[in-house]
Amino acid sequence: MKTFLRLSLTAFAFLLLSGIVTETKAQGVLGEVLKRMDAHNKALTSLKANVSMEKYNSQLGETDKYSGKAIYLPQKGRNAFVRIDWSSPVEESLAVVNKEYILFRPRLKQAIVGNVDKAQGSSTSNNALAFINMSRAELKANYEIKYIGQETASGVPTWHLELIPKKADKYKKADLWVDGNGMPVQMKVTESNNDTTQVVLSGIQKNVTVKGSDFKINLPKDTEIIKG
Length: 228
Known about the structure:
Elements: H1 2-43, E1 47-57, E2 62-75, E3 78-88, E4 92-97, E5 100-105, E6 110-115, H2 125-129, H3 136-142, E7 143-153, E8 156-165, E9 171-178, E10 184-191, E11 196-206, E12 224-227
Parallel strand pairs: 6-12
Antiparallel strand pairs: 1-2, 1-11, 2-3, 3-4, 4-5, 5-6, 7-8, 8-9, 9-10, 10-11
């Protein structure tokens, strides 16, 4: 009986030590990922990419899929400028500047305008892209961050991070898949009602010429303006 007890205690101590080592290793990887993200954030001056988005409605159990092209312009101390021109399933253009968005739907001759903090629908894609513009200090100040593991996303090896907001937000968690350069190439936001928005970037071009005027959507005169 004593021998069994000693073996049990030894096994327990080994498992406990293994858990501590694993957790320490995960924290080390997390620190390195955040360091690379911070360096990437500081070096990034502009971005162009192909973008695909999947929006899952948990109540209906349905997923809507979109694809198009995005341009992105970081702003020091402010929210980045974002423009996405969707080509599928229909043509739409979304631009976000200083937290104000405009969603142009040419087939309906409508433009929806509003603030991203109150936005619903396609404009929430900006929530996912916002993580590209966050420094390490901002991420650590606003989220409890957990390293999940290594996974392939957008066809490249990535580190998977889980972010839980420290303060109440309209989404309960976010998942980031970060490549070796510190670039989030896939982002998924899970809202409080379990709806999700997942954004994947590919064909990424960094630090190319992008002008402020590129984010202006020129509306035809007969466009109906709707407050979002």
